[in-house]
């Protein structure tokens, strides 16, 4: 593959195209300054304005959320895995029916494999614009987003109505639900009762990995972060490895399906049969299946990279109460 062809599979941080109308809370005060990005796959956006950078199926989706300080993403859940790692800023993640069951604060490089089956939200509690990168299980990302009832009610008060089809309509622009299309129904009490309310103490040990712990564990070989034998043992339909200068190798390897490289610290040189590219923090590179490649830091100093590859596991619930 030529460098020009591979460049079509690299999404540079500075070239990310945001969408500010991606979800139902786009008008809700406190959430109306969010920027959402769909990098690989269709994502879960409810807006036709969302730009998709790479449409090639990988078995998972890659996205991102950028938010100014004190801006939050409203309570929701997905039918498949949702994993975040912090690229920049300081973030508070919270969960439960009302967002009060538990919480955790993450710093750059930390990763959170959020259990399915619980409502979750997050906010930038830093002092500058921050970015978190997301991995969603499945090519269709579980079919979309399930919102806590109060989110849908608050959104309607500010002009946004979500149809049962999953499409948003903005009444401030004169839009109305089409004839024969009903609004998205609120979850019943029976459905809400199925959602978990785990405490912070229950979630942290098996769902959060800290950057500096992973750096220590990746001193000789890549740290398996998410996988059957991972630091966070799970089989969500993909595996995540954490690589540092001590565990990177110039020996080329390949996979039988597309894989993704996402630097979180430092610059990385990726070599493949046919070319070379350099990735910076916030860049995302999709490596084709069967293509032999390697990734090593391109300069001295702190460096870390996340590597994601799909598996044959069927994405499903991770929180069973």
TrEMBL record:
Domain Cupin type-2: 73-133
Pfam families xref list: Cupin_2 (PF07883)
Protein origin, superkingdom: Bacteria
Name of the protein this chain belongs to: Cupin
Lineage, uppermost ranks: Bacteria, Pseudomonadati, Pseudomonadota, Alphaproteobacteria, Rhodobacterales
């Amino acid at each position: 593959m030529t460098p020009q062809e591979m460049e079509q599979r690299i999404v540079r941080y500075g070239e990310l195209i945001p969408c500010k109308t991606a979800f139902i809370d786009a008008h809700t005060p406190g959430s109306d300054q969010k920027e959402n990005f769909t990098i690989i796959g269709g994502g879960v956006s409810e807006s036709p304005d969302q730009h998709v950078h790479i449409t090639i199926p990988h078995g998972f989706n890659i996205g991102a959320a950028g938010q100014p300080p004190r801006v939050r993403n409203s309570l929701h859940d997905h039918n498949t895995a949702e994993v975040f790692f912090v690229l920049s800023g300081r973030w508070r993640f919270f969960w439960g029916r009302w967002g009060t069951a538990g919480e955790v604060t993450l710093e750059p490089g930390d990763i959170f494999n959020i259990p399915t089956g619980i409502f979750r939200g997050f906010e930038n509690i830093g002092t500058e614009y921050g970015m978190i990168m997301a991995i969603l299980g499945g090519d269709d990302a579980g079919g979309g987003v399930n919102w806590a009832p109060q989110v849908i009610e608050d959104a309607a008060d500010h002009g946004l109505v979500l149809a049962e089809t999953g499409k948003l309509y903005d009444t401030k622009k004169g839009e109305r639900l089409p004839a024969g299309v009903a609004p998205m129904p609120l979850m019943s009490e029976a459905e809400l009762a199925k959602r978990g309310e785990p405490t912070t103490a229950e979630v942290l040990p098996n769902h959060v990995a800290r950057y500096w712990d992973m750096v220590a564990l990746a001193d000789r070989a890549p740290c398996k972060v998410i996988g059957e034998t991972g630091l966070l043992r799970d089989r969500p339909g993909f595996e995540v490895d954490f690589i540092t200068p001590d565990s990177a190798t110039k020996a080329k390897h390949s996979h039988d399906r597309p894989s993704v490289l996402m630097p979180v610290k430092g610059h990385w040189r990726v070599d493949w049969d046919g070319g070379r590219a350099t990735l910076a923090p916030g860049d995302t590179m999709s490596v084709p299946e069967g293509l032999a490649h390697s990734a090593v830091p391109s300069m001295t100093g702190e460096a870390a990279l996340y590597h994601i590859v799909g598996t044959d596991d069927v994405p499903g619930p991770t929180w069973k109460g």
